[in-house]
Amino acid sequence: MENKEKEQFSIEVARLYYESDYSQQEIANKLGISRPTVSRLLKSAKDKGYVQIKITDPFSDLAGLGTALRNKYDLLEAHIVFSPESDYQSITEYLSRFAAEYLEETIQDGTTIGVSWGTTMYEIARKIAPKNVNGIEVVQLKGGISHSKVNTYANETISLFAKAFQTTPINLPLPVIFDNVATKELVEQDRHIQHIIEKGRQATVAVFTVGTVRENALLFRLGYFDKKEMKQLKENAVGDICSRFFDKTGKISNDKINNRTIGIDLEELKHKEKSILVAGGHRKIQAIDGALKGKYANVLITDQFTAKELLDKKD
C-alpha cells in the first residue's frame, strides 16, 4: 500500500473510531484487517495530525475566575462553583451544597452567625451537616413574617442552621417591612427587639443572598408593597439584600421603604469578618454586581456562568 493510500486508510479508520463510535474490533471486522493494525493506523493518524484530541476540563479555569472576581470587586474571597447547567435550579443546587460545606469549615466555637432567608438560604440550611461546636449563636438578620400565603421558609431556615451548630435560634418575629415608619420605630424601641437587632449587628459572620426586582421576585409576592411602590422599585433598584433595596451602584434606592424595613442595615454588613453572599444565575447578575459595588459582601460564592458574566459586565 502506497503512503498516500495508507494515510487515507488511517483517516477512514479514525473517522469510524472517533466520529462513528465503532470499537477497534468492529472496525477490524468491517474492513477485514486485524485489531492491532487498526490500533497502528489510529496512532499514525494522531502522529500525523489528522486527529487532534482536545480535552475540556470544566474545573480548570475556576481558580482563575475567582482571582479575577477578587480583583474586580476587591473581595476577601471568591469561590467559583462548577455547575453542569446554567439554569437557576441547577446553579442553586450546586451553590447551596458548596456554601453548606464552606460554613461547616468556617464556623468555629464562639461564632455569632447572622442569617437571612429566601430559597437559596433554605437550600443551604437543608444541606449543612451537624458540627460539634460550642458557644454558637444564630440570629435572624431580618423579620420573616408576612400575611401572604407564600412561604419564605424563614423559620425553617434559621431552625436548621441552629440545629446544625448545636444551638437555639434567635428569631426576629416581625414583618420585615412595616406599613409605616412610626410603627416600625415604635417596635424597635422594645428592649427584646433591640436585643435581637443588636445581636445581628454583633454577628461576626453574615450569610445572605440577593433578591431581584423581577415581577415574580419573592419579596414582591409577600404583600409588602402597593403597585406604585413596586413600580418605583422596578425603575430604580436592581436587587435587595435582607429586604433593603439598592441601585446599580449599591446605594439604597428608596429611602422611604428602607426606613420601614426592620433588621440589619446594609452598612453594617461591611464590618463583618465574613460577609458571605451566595448567589448565581443570569437573572441575578445586576443584583450581584450592585451588591458587590456597594461592598456589602467580602466573600462571594457563585457559579462559573455567573462569574463570566460578571467579569464581562461593563460599568
Regarding quaternary structure, how should these chains be classified? single chain
Uncertain ranges: none
Gap between N and C termini, in Å?
64 Å
| Rg value | 27 Å
**Order of SSEs:** HHHHEHEHEHEHHEHEEHHEHEH
Strand content: 5-15%
The computed structural class is alpha/beta
Q: Kindly state the percentage of residues in helix.
A: 40-55%
* Total strand segments: 9
| Main pleated-sheet profile | 7 strands, parallel
Global morphology: elongated
Q: Largest sheet, order of strands side by side? A: 1-9-8-5-2-3-4
Count of DSSP-assigned helices: 14
Molecular structure report:
The chain has 14 helices and nine strands. A seven-stranded parallel beta sheet has the order 1-9-8-5-2-3-4. Helix content is 46%, strand content 11%. It is elongated and about 95 Å long. The chain starts with a helix and ends with a helix. With 315 residues, the protein is of the alpha/beta class. Helix 1 crosses helix 3 (35-47) and helix 4 (62-73) packs across helix 14 (304-312). The model has no long low-confidence stretch (mean pLDDT 91). Helix 6 links the parallel strand 2 (112-115) and strand 3 (137-140). It has helices at 3-19, 24-31, 35-47, 62-73, 88-106, 119-127, 154-164, 181-188, 191-202, 227-236, 255-259, 266-269, 285-293, 304-312; strands at 77-81, 112-115, 137-140, 169-170, 205-208, 239-241, 244-246, 274-278, 299-303. Keywords: DNA-binding, Transcription, Transcription regulation. It holds the Pfam family HTH_24. This is Sugar-binding transcriptional regulator. InterPro entries: HTH_CRP, NagB/RpiA_transferase-like, RNA_pol_sigma_r3/r4-like, SorC_transcr_regulators, Sugar-bd_dom_put. Residues 1-59 form the HTH crp-type domain.
